[in-house]
Model the fold of this input.
Amino acid sequence: MDITRFGHAALLVESGPHRVLIDPGTFSRDEAFDLTDLDAIVVTHQHPDHVDPARIERLLGANPSARLLAEPQTVAALDGLGVWQAMAADVTVELGPSMTLTGVGFQHAVIHPDMPRIGNVGVLVEAAGTRLLHPGDSYATVPRDIDVLAVPLSAPWAKVSETVDFVRAVAPRTVFPIHDCTVSELAYPIYWGRVAEMGGAEQALLLGQDGTASV
Done:
């Protein structure tokens, strides 16, 4: 499995003939919206840093045969921008004999009790014997037997102790950061350093905004 970051929460996951793009949002690099030959585009929730309505049409036009999968409320929010299929928790979509996508979780993490919560369905990508979890914006659901965790590093809803505890609970072999455009370069080691040192993963990979890794 090869994973390429395109900024913030956007990941391109490739295995064999399959290519899946997750969460192409407003903080994503422009190159994410020029990708082609995608089998699926997955959106975990409707916040613009996870799906950019201004650029998504360009991506859809370049990938007319891609399956469009999104959290149910997000399907309604993207009405008129392609034909999206609702991806709910525990629903598995087969892209072929060598890759499956499974919905994980239900709701976005609490930002503030006064703010209504929206839906959030992360995605578990399984291919070539490797299980990758992209949780979207939530630490609430902890699937078993995760090999690789893309962990949200910083957000209005998160704090370092919760991030570390989530990594420990998931117990992946490999962890790398996503959702980190809210962290300044100067402060980055404070956040990632604690997760890398205390999370307990065998391998902590610091993928930059355009990093690539084989796992």
